[in-house]
Design brief:
By secondary structure, the chain is α+β, with helices and mostly antiparallel strands. It has 3 domains: 73 residues, no CATH class; 111 residues, 3-Layer(aba) Sandwich (Rossmann fold); 56 residues, no CATH class. The chain is built from 10 helices and 7 strands. The strands form 2 sheets. Strands 3-4-5-2-6 form a 5-stranded antiparallel beta sheet. A two-stranded parallel sheet has the order 1-7. Helix 2 crosses helix 3. The longest helix is centred in the last third of the chain and has 30 residues. The model has no long low-confidence stretch (mean pLDDT 91).
Length: 284
């Protein structure tokens, strides 16, 4: 993943040399869908049934526990199909890992005298006197309101970690397994991402599950309608800001979540500046 010209040449035993060649081939495979509503529609409309069944159908069924025809079009729209040789998942200009890893990055972000870290504490167990005037809540929005309208559906993951006595397990960082007969969806080998050099290697198998910590909001119209009921309750709360995948029930990538957080901060900073200025003027 993703499908590119190398994929097409290997799968169909072709010798496509240019982007134009690949685009023409994909156009010939495409099966136009009059009204694109589901994830199946997106892929079949762009690349046809064969590539859809080979790469998307089984993987989506495993990942979401649903057929692509039952999921919103946004799910498979996230996975690009390319006509060039670029095999990166994302096309962002800058792609990097934190120099010392994500754990150290968050430790440094939290290392501030105004921040108290309380792990293993449930928000709902806190007394009103223990709450700040403003809370940023990134947990499941339905849980915050006691599942008043019923639980929102989520998908989870179970991980199996292995350390192997070999230098390398696979040729790239992540290999996806679209075949429904394979119980896991992908294997990640971390040294490709970190640049570490070592005689052993660490890998992780990912198994989608309906049970466990909520990871993925499930994009379906009926789920979005249920979320809107919770969003209406959230909009009535001036003391809580709901953010993140779970707080806003959206399938965000990491960069999108960071962008959401920074945009929220800017709005808060502007609001506080206005309030501080108004208070200063009143005092004068």
């Amino acid at each position: 993943m993703p499908i590119n010209r190398t994929t097409l040449n290997g799968l169909y035993d072709l010798n496509l040399q240019t982007d134009e060649d690949a685009a023409a081939f994909l156009a010939a495979q495409a099966e136009p869908v009059e009204k694109i509503e589901t994830s199946r529609d997106v892929v079949v409309n762009a690349v046809g049934t064969h590539l859809y069944e080979t790469f998307f159908q089984g993987y989506t069924r495993k990942q979401w526990g649903l057929d692509p025809s039952e999921l919103d079009k946004s799910v498979t729209s996230r996975v690009p199909t390319r006509t060039n040789l670029d095999d990166r998942y994302f096309l962002d200009s800058f792609q990097a890992m934190p120099r010392d890893g994500f754990t150290r990055m968050f430790e440094k972000m939290l290392d501030h005298p105004n921040i108290d870290l309380a792990l293993g504490a449930d928000y709902h167990d806190l007394k009103p006197s223990e709450l700040a005037p403003l809370t940023v809540y990134t947990g499941p929005i339905d849980a915050f309101f006691g599942h008043r309208f019923g639980p929102l559906p989520y998908r989870s993951l179970h991980f199996r970690h292995e350390i192997l006595d070999q230098r390398r397990f696979q040729e790239v960082a992540v290999v996806n397994y679209p075949d429904e007969a394979v119980p896991y969806t992908r294997i990640t080998e971390y040294k490709h991402l970190t640049g570490q050099v070592a005689p052993r290697t660490s890998i992780t198998y990912e198994y989608p599950s309906a049970e466990g910590d909520p990871y993925y909001p499930i994009p379906r119209p009926e789920n979005q309608a249920l979320y809107k009921k919770y969003e209406a309750l959230a909009n009535q709360r001036d003391d809580v800001i709901f953010l993140g995948r779970l707080g806003t029930y959206r399938y965000y990538n990491m960069d999108q979540v960071v962008g959401q957080a920074l945009a929220t901060y800017r709005r808060l900073a502007e609001r506080m500046a206005i309030q501080t200025g108004a208070a200063s003027t009143a005092a004068e």
